[in-house]
Write a structure and sequence with these properties.
Blueprint: H1 9-23, H2 35-42, H3 46-58, E1 62-65, E2 69-72, H4 89-94, E3 100-111, H5 114-120, E4 127-137, E5 140-150, H6 166-172, E6 177-190, E7 201-213, E8 218-227
Antiparallel strand pairs: 1-2, 3-4, 4-5, 5-8, 6-7, 7-8
Helix pairs in contact: 1-3
Length: 239
Amino acid sequence: MKATAEKPLQVRVQTAIRDLIRAQGLVAGDQLPTEGELTSLLDVGRSTLREAMANLESQGLLQRIQGKGTFIRQIPLVLENGIDELRSVSEHIRAVGATPSTSRIEIQVIEASDLLAEKLQVEEGAPLVRIERVRRADGAIAAFCIDILPKSLVPGIESEDFRGSLFEMFSGGGNNPSYAESNLRPTILTRRDFPEMKSEIGLFLLFEEVFYDDNGTPICYSNDYYSADIFDFRIVRKR
């Protein structure tokens, strides 16, 4: 079972095209079936197919050449991970053999608002560090991450060139992430929210989480937006 709400038809068609590419073993430079063949294979109308193809082209997956057809520019990367496992974004990416990287990072010191003070169990106005990052998997945009943590846990981080995993940094400082309280919901981001997006809008799965160390002390409040184009989280439900 996928841990997302039912996706819009247009998004499902994009996913079906990616699945078709993998199923047929196509690689970068290969040509896709014709529009007529795709409408038959995917059982969709031409207008829906054309919209899906246009979005995949804007994302950099496909390239249409006038008079020749549609060709693959890059192979889509889909990560299938258990949603019940406590992993960082870097760990999710490495788990399938891909290489994590950070293409943008912004670090600033802020004061704890009422909400953040409650989430992190600190005094209102206490100094916090806000880290905003764009995470990639083998170069493809994988997640947009906003992490807020007490400044006392990461003294001097705002002046450092931090590019690694927060989990690894916490563990190295003796604050090993033990568990998290999580809220998950599908959401849509626009290019205004996330300038790196190639399309005007994108579907994401938001993980709103508070992470706790082994002593039950909150160490980080996160809003991680996982791209539905890259991540396919699955869960197994038992009775």
